[in-house]
Amino acid sequence: MTVAKYFDEMSYGPAPESDIEARDWLARHASGFGHFINGAFVPSASGKNFDTFEPATGKVLAKLANGGATDVDNAVAAARKAQASWARLPGHARARHLYALARMIQRHARLIAVVEAIDNGKPIRETRDLDVPLAARHFYHHAGWAQIQDTEFADHVPVGVVGQIIPWNFPFLMLAWKVAPALALGNAVILKPAEFTSLTALLFAELASAAGLPPGVLNIVTGEGETGALLVGHEDIDKIAFTGSTEVGRVIRERTAGSGKSLTLELGGKSPFVVFDDADIDGAVEGAVDAIWFNQGQVCCAGSRLLVQEGIADLFHERLKRRMETLRVGQPLDKCIDMGAIIAPVQLTRIEALVKKGVSEGATLHQAKIDLPKGGSFYPPTLLSGVQPTSIVATEEIFGPVAVSMTFRTPEEAIQLANHTRYGLAASVWSETIGLALNVAAKLAAGVVWVNATNLFDAAVGFGGKRESGFGREGGREGCYEYLKPKAWVGRKTRAAMPALSQVKPVAGDFALPSIDRTAKLFIGGKQARPDGNYSRVIASPKGKAIGEVGEGNRKDIRNAVVAAQAASAWSNATTHNRAQILYYIAENLSGRADEFASRITAMTGASAANANAEVDAAISRLFTYAAWADKYEGGIHQPPLRGVALAMPEAIGVVGIICPPEAPLLGFISLIAPLIATGNRVVAVPSEAFPLSATDFYSVLETSDLPAGVVNIVTGSAIELAKILAAHNDVDALWAFGSAELSTTVEKLSSGNLKRTFVDNGKATDWMDRAAGEGALYLRRAVDVKNIWIPYGE
User: Fold this and answer.
1) How far is C-alpha 234 from the geometric centre of its chain's CA atoms?
2) What whole-number distance in Å separates Cα of residue 468 and Cα of residue 246?
3) Residue 644: left if φ>0, alpha if ψ -120 to 50, beta else—which one?
4) Is the model's pTM score more than 0.90?
5) What does the alpha-carbon distance between residue 485 and residue 480 come to, in Å, rounded to a whole number?
6) Is the pLDDT confidence value at 296 over 50?
7) Measured between alpha carbons, how far is 165 from 244 in angstroms, rounded to an integer?
8) Final residue of a domain: which of 220, 241, 266?
9) Aldehyde dehydrogenase domain: from which residue to which, for each copy (predicted)?
10) 54 and 91: one domain?
């Protein structure tokens, strides 16, 4: 080829990265890698091993230990032994260890990048320029949180021993996302890397040991799915942090139900990439390339659903197809490629099958006409246009280099299409009108939204999803809380068994006039409603005197209450000042009837007049607390190292079910509904099963306090039976349940259907009179999702 021809074609020749050092490192471990437990590499107790393969060639890379029950037991024991001493270290000491790990990553950055590219199949440009530098950034950033932990998280302590399970798409970066905050805040870790991509985790273990990290603080157990299951089920682990598929996340939610383990899940996605007709089309095309063909599309937040405004759709698709033809697919260590290999043949087969299904459902297929390397698992950049919103390729996560495209006409239709998914991880909005972009961003059901950008990440900015994309956040201050627990809850004791419901004792009649019968109704949609089943239950005093009746709620009553709560969605958009005013008004009206409510508490529970009055006073104070917080629980502005900002915006979760604690019938009820409505949620509350009359009396307070209909709905009846209905309801977005251990287990297990967020007490009693334990940020954080909206600026 002549020089002139090169200038005419502007084509790239291969530019291979040297893999000598990486291959030498692998050769030193030719006999196989062991687990890293208590600061040393040890073989699998069973002697079992498995091979890991190079995606680009299909050749065996290394032999790995296959973790079994004994290996997991040993790792957990080492972590448990080390954790207390690690947590007692001054924050500065832990900060220095994190700093040493960050520096170690930087000194060995090229080796890590090459091993990652070989092991995962992704381009060396991505591992070298993105994954490894961002991993180092996470350790630097969290070294800072360790340094200031005593002041910034003074009312929290470490969770304890943490089991972490990471996926194969970003092996080293996911390690940093999880290990850095856990260690920084005083926890010990057992990490289980993906069976396809364990090598950089084992390399990191070597580096951590060389950096002087104390034995047992970090443990790495390799293996297949069963190894992860053993970690999830281990009784001596305090938290599980999982990144992976929604299907596996659902299983983990079920298996950890009732265990008391803290849980964060970062799961799948089907993220919308919304392009308006005033967008910079060339910029949006480049954004689409980064959104779906970065890392071969094997990205949980990949912008795989292109939603393009109708007026520019033809032009956008024409330019996107032209750009696709210039993409280069090749060997991962070639610095001139755009896409590398698919992780494994099984994933390649899945991608091919889904694309074939999409075409059979009417999509138009376009694949770049480019050469693919021989051997290995490679797939070309692919676009499916004319896709229907209900097509399998529009609803299922393909996890490959496949974009699907649809059109829309108006912003409202764009929002509707974008939210037409069971996922809610991320989204991109492209428009030169910042008002339009931010208005749409605020209405998208996603944990992260990028404006005129895509796939931006930083250790200071929380990342995580909604709906079936999981719950919890990683990164930033909000991510730190996932590895901490409140001091005020540490010493809680198991709730004493509630006495059996008092039976009504027969009373001989006399010639006095009988009292006028009154059965408390349910409260649904702002109105008193008879229970669907027309059954009621008598509420008796401790001495057996009938003091009232309440309706026996059932599935249809819960359904009606959820429908009413959904219809009250305007409450989520009400101004924070308006919500504060209404909460103050509720407190005012309750105060005017304080004696009546105190008498009711005494009649139901047998509490002394002084204690009953104290509970009412505390309830009024609690309403004032959340009225105060309503217009002050605000977001923040993150300043990642780029020309732009990320807005951390707390958002209402939506419709939240509440199972109130059996004790403190008024204060427990208000302590749970008030933070939720203060932050814009709508609730379906089940009052104390034994003492529900405080709540049924309270709806008359709500009726006179300007609270919009449907914001608070009250259904009386069996706590456990109504909890089952709420937990399984797909239109309930979260469920708070305070009561027995059985109740917590039931709620967590049944919530796996739509992976709703849960907040349970595992049968531990809360002192509702203690403000540290019963109110404040502890509850407000669980009442919101934090959406991070990235806004780059400048040219």
Assistant:
1) 22
2) 7
3) left
4) yes
5) 10
6) yes
7) 8
8) 266
9) 41-487, 537-761
10) yes
